[in-house]
Every structure is written in C-alpha cells, then in structure tokens.
Amino acid sequence: MLSSQPVIHQRQFRRFLAPLVEAAGQTPGADRYRKVFPATAHLWTLLLHVLHGAGSLRQTHAILSA
User: Fold this and answer.
1) From CA 32, how far away is CA 48, in angstroms rounded?
2) What stretches of the chain adopt beta strand conformation (E)?
C-alpha cells in the first residue's frame, strides 16, 4: 500500500534548506574562527553528515573528497 504522505525530492529539500543555512551562516560572529571555509560551507558539511548518518566526520569528508 502506498503512503499518502507527500514525497520530498532532493531539489525541493535543498530549496527548503538553503535559506535556513544561509541565514544561520550570516549570524553575527559565525565566521569568527573560520580560516579556510565560510560558516555556510561548514554548515552544509555538518548537515550532510547528519543526513548521511556517517559514523564520523572523517567518513563524511572522505565521501565529499571522492
């Protein structure tokens, strides 16, 4: 039996998340200790880490570098 719940596609999910991540990255002081990447890049990496369910951030970085 098919679920009556709407299916959220990746593109729709990204459109939903992008403004939230951008707003969080613009928080005053968010880039204070960032030397290489802006806070928004770190937020996207952490979000991917949580959604992917990787055991460690090293696994997430390995996925991104592949």
Assistant:
1) 22
2) none
